[in-house]
Amino acid sequence: MIATVAGGGPITRDGAREAARRELSKGIYHRNDEPWPVRIFRAVQRWLDHLMQSVSHHAPGGGAGAIALLLAAAALVAFVWWRVGLVRRTARGERPVLQGPSRTSGDLLREAETAAAAGRWDDAVVARMRSLAMVVEERGIVDPRPGRTADELAAEIALVVPASLDAGRAAATTFDAVVYGKRTATRESYDVVVAAADVVDREHRGRRLLSVSTR
Known about the structure:
The protein is mostly helical. It is 69% helix and 0% strand. The protein is built from eight helices and no strands. It has helices at residues 13-24, 36-58, 63-92, 105-117, 121-138, 150-160, 165-179, 187-213.
């Protein structure tokens, strides 16, 4: 026997299913359903129960081994999250290149060279970058400005000395990695900062000579 609708057409299986779905979706049938937060909680609880059972079947020691594995996994996730957060905080917390007692570029350069001769590459990188920051202020390449970061310094120098763009960025990245990322510096790290300072010095001297010759 084939059921028909009031209009005379037959009711197909798909049509009956869709009609039933529409009918059951009405609010009157769901007045006694659990609130959605409770349903989510129960779903998570069922998932955790299933996870525990699955792990306990494969973990040495049964349930105790499963708990130990889950705790180890949670500790690993927490460690990774902490490390990611540390990197983000470091990126957000960039501090000025020049800080502490005011010194001349010559003083900072001598400090850098002394540290480099002793193999103290961390100190050498910091002092050499700060010497560069001070020398560009002393020469009027950039205006003195408290609170300038290494990245800002490189960008401002490049506006006046475009040839220094790549070398300046590399020096700023190296400085930030050593000072704020706590990465151990090497001779190569120091050479990166020296190369940036050399580019700025060479280009600045060339501009001054050109200016003098055209007068």
